[in-house]
Amino acid sequence: MQSVHPHLGPRAATPVIRSVPAPPASIDATLPYDPRVEAVDRSLPGLLGSAALRGLASLAGFSAILGLAWSEPLRSASAKRSVRRAVLEQLFLVGFRPVVMVSTVAFFVGATVALQALALAPATSGELLGQVLAVLVIRELGPLVTAVLITARSGTAIATELGNMSARDELVALESLGIPPAKLIVWPRAFAIASSVVVLSIYFAGVALIGGASLVGAFGSGVTPLLEGLRESLGARDLGLFLFKALGLGLAVAVIVCHSGLNARRSGTRVPENTSRAVMTSLFVCVVLNTVTSVLFYWLVGWPFR
Amino acid sequence: MSSGVIELDRVTFGYGELAIIDRESVVVPAGGCFVVRGPNGAGKSTLLRVMAGLLPPRDGRVLLGGRRADGVDPTALLDAGVRRGFVFEQGALIGRLTAFENVVLALDYHADNLGLDPAEVQSRARRALSRVGVHSPDMHALPERLSFGTQKRVAFARALAIEPNYVFLDDPDLGLDETSAAVVLDLLADFESDPAITLAVATNSSAVMRRLRTGAVELMGAKLVDSLALAPARPPVFLA
Known about the structure:
The complex is a heterodimer.
Chain A: E1 2-4, E2 16-18, H1 44-67, H2 77-96, H3 99-120, H4 126-167, H5 170-176, H6 181-219, H7 223-233, H8 236-262, H9 270-301
Antiparallel strand pairs in A: 1-2
Helix pairs in contact in A: 1-8, 2-6, 3-4, 3-6, 4-6, 4-7, 4-8, 4-9, 6-8, 8-9
Chain B: E1 6-15, E2 18-28, E3 33-37, H1 44-51, E4 59-64, E5 67-68, H2 74-79, E6 84-87, H3 99-109, H4 111-114, H5 118-131, H6 148-161, E7 166-170, H7 178-193, E8 198-202, H8 206-212, E9 217-220, E10 223-226, H9 227-230
Parallel strand pairs in B: 3-8, 3-9, 6-7, 7-8
Antiparallel strand pairs in B: 1-2, 1-4, 4-5, 9-10
Helix pairs in contact in B: 3-5, 3-6, 5-6, 6-7, 7-8
């Protein structure tokens, strides 16, 4: 059945509405507070099913964010320019602004590692101290602590920003203007986090080694044997592990933080909750991923303690 | 042939178990005007977003100018000549950009497609802001520093700047004082009289309906119904 709306004004152009049934006897629409919107099955299978679906949705969200790297490139030069500008802005905020904080933390982490090594074996040689620093800072602490610092500083900011943008309809407003938020908003932030973790991890390792060398120089056996120990214990495999970890942790933080922010959807009350979840999930994933990567590394190259 | 037409083809949409639109079909001809009203929470804003292709329906198709609008790359839609100007109920300005930057953003991004050089981008943004009565210093303030009415006018300017052929207005005069409301109502009349613009409005405001001089359909229980048919005795206060 087709009917033309009979109460139009003077315009000739007339909306046509088809399949109009009789109105229901009672109307009970109360968006956005209607409990039917988020109806939850409280039975055990229902809760397990919901959790599984949420997990799958998160994985799909992570994949979608990772997939932005391979998405169709922008065609127009003006769009490319806008995205490039957004990327540079985010690189400045995520990768450059925390340099002082990363330097300070790295210096003291390096010094602490050297201090504890000296305290454990005061007569230890400078070369052995160099090896300890190399193993702990390059193989373990560099990427992990950097990822934790970026999560705490920029991850929270980005998860909150994306959450607020989502809750205030800013992302959908961009879409209405023909601007894909994934490319102008999400991609620059995800790229900035992942690349900043890699670059700042390298920087962290350098400053931490300087911190350790400074302490050894002040209280230990001199810097030259320490540098010798560093040089001897660092191989291409260590650097490969270091870069692999830094990239892996950077990508993990980027997708978790961006996904959590976007997941606030249109609910402002979800923003703090999602930000907190983003930070905790990022930290958990970083620690686990770091350990798993180390175990896999030794499994591949041979266990050093056998 | 179908340029300027908004078409909903047996569209179903809902949140969780709550149905908002249930197998509804609507055709708004090019240059036409569609006004939807309804009780609070009925889903008018949601319907408008579905019509604009901003929310993919669970079932059915949404076509703008004969082109599938839901779930497609928004840039591709604009490249195909579908320029949507959507004014959200709360404005939805980008919080970290000034009013001027908000208007410039889309112009800058699509400068090549729209054939604008940097100077034209700036001048078009200024013209759009001037048309809604936003001048310096408001023009260079962040949205949080602006009154709600000014934010809403900036949102109109942002939509106007891309010279849209589809305009979607969600409660356009909600929460506005007399001055801002007058600006918005004049713009509505301009949109309505422009044959190049297909207009869709969600509102319960009698001032808006009076200015549009167009009857409204009512969204109730996930169905679009003739608003007068619901209560024939009610005087048509929204008609001119």
